[in-house]
Every structure is written in structure tokens, then in C-alpha cells.
Request: fold
Amino acid sequence: MSGLLLSFLVLGGSLFVLIKGSDWFVDSAERIGLSLGVSPFIIGVTIVAFGTSLPELASSISAVLNDNSEIVAGVVIGSNITNILLVLGLVATVGRVVKMDYDIMDIDLTMLIGSALLLYFCMADQHISTFEAVIFLFALAFFLLNMLTGTKRSDAVRPKATWRDLLLLALGGVFVKYGADFTVNAITQLAVDFEIQATILAQTLVAFGTSLPEVAVSITAALKGKSGIAVGNILGSNIFNTYAVISIPSFFGELVISDETISFYLPFMVACTVLFATISIGGRITKWEGYLLLLLYLFFFNHSFGIL
Reply:
């Protein structure tokens, strides 16, 4: 029992270090970006979205390097499902009605659906080839290029980046690296202790933990009446998860993709993405749709552990 408790404490502590490191990294990168005259919108969709996906990326690379690559697909798919069902569900219920600040159907949501379908077809054979990984990176580059060319530079007063920002950027990177290593080790040990597949733990507990930055950013935005920013953060994070967190770790080693991932989790993620698109068509997401998303998240969690 003491060993089991230690594993949970290590998992909780390592997730805290991972998320705190990501927080420092994002805040310092955001300030440095503003000092260079980059638009706050661009920073939100790129730096912040990448920053909130940094725990998933770091955990996935660490998993491959430690011969636990079955965690990678679980982290990506589980995080995408958690972002849509749990994070968006909480945003909709807290913010009452989520109103889009811009036409999300224009290209961003289309790219999100495209990324989910591309992931489905590439993972169907339970293998991610180098060619497919390169395609993902090109798709990510196209997404970023579209963001950069579609928005003007900021004319706002630029804050000055200081040595403290550079120090926090470096410390954040170190925290992310070691937090990811300990997170993967704790997952592996818990999977052995409970005789549960590591990929299932990755798609539930770890996906929830690494999605906490999205939860914090999105709910804070919703409470401030900026629900469109919350939706943009969820959308950008899912695109980064799909394109970067699957492709980059695959260059470090072969990714193991379980049968359960192909038979249930991957199709369920695609269905959640399509549902996200469907309820976004009207330009608003109501609190009742938020409750529906939360109920689906409970179904997803129950399917994984069979609690109910």
C-alpha cells in the first residue's frame, strides 16, 4: 500500500511540476513575443496553444525514450477528448452561453476536423510512418502560416522583456522535461500495480492532468466573458496535440498503438470533434450543450474504468 501511495504522490507531484513549468514557459514566451510586437491573438493561438500542449509533448517524447511509447497515442487522443468534452463542457456551463468572437467555421474548425480525420486514417494500421509524421508537421506549418499571415502585427505598447523572462523560460523548460520523465515513470508503475494498460491510464488520468492548463486558461477566459478565447485555446491545443504530439515523438522511436485505441478511443475522438463542429455552427454553445458534453465525458471515463 505504501508503494501504491508513493506512486500516486509521484504522479501528482510530477504533474504539478510539469504544469507549473509549462505555465512559466508560456508566460515568459508570451511576454517576449509581445516585446517583439507579435499580436496578442497570434500569441494566444500559437504560443499559448502550444504551451498548454507542452505537457503532452514532453510526456510523449519521454515515453518513447523510455520504451513506453504506447502512452503517446493515449495522451494525444485522451487530451483531445478531454479538451472537447470536459474543458468545453465546463466553459459552457460556467459561461452560460459561449459566443464566438470570430467566425470559427471559416478555417480553424475545418482544420481541426481535418486533423482528426487525418489522424484516424494514419493510425488505422496501428503505425505512424516517417512520411505520415512529416505530413503532420507540414499541416502544422500550414496552420501556423495561416495564423501569421491572416493577422496584422500589434501596434500596442510593447512591454520590455527582461532577464527574468529568459530565466523563467529556461526554468520552465527544465521543469517540463523532468516533470514529464517522472510522470511517465509513475504511469508505468501504476499500470503494473493495478494491472491496467498504460494507454488507458494515459487517456484518462494523464490526459486530465495534462489538460489542466487548458481548464485553467479556458475557464478564466469564460468567467471574464471572453468565451471565444476559450474556444480558440481548445481548438488550437487539439490541433497542436494531433500534429505535433504524434509526429515529433515518432522520430525518436516506433509508436505502439493498442487495439482498444483503434476500436474505441480513436473513433470516439473523431465523433467528439464532429460534435464540436456541429454545436458550433450557430456561433454559440449553450449551457445545456455543455451539460451534454460533460455527460459524454462521464461515459468516456466510465468506459475506461467500468466504475458505473
Observations:
- The CA atoms of residues 35 and 233 lie 22 Å apart.
- The chain has one domain: 2-152+161-305.
